[in-house]
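May I ask for a single protein's sequence together with how it folds?
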Amino acid sequence: MSIFPNIIAARYSPRADWAFSVGTRATAAPKTNSSSSIALVDIAVGMRWLRDVAGVETIVLLGNSGGGSLMAAYQAEAIKPTLAETASGPLREALAALPQGQLYISLNAHPGRRKC
């Protein structure tokens, strides 16, 4: 189950450069730890698609605003998994095998979720 309704992959140049976008509006996802874990798995699915289907060799994780925090959390988990320890079943397996990005760029990132 994906929690992001707006996942877009688009070829943007004839040299086979690709962009993969995950919409991370604060209202798009429920506010639970489980949902955060699923968000990381959603990003991993897109990264695997870029590598395996589109043939992309270098993936740059770029996040703006809340997406900056999300991409930072993703890359941290890909480098040193910690969430898999508390998950179970397929989610545990997916969190333990997140592919790493080669670069990470954060724009206007903030330290946490907005207060509701």
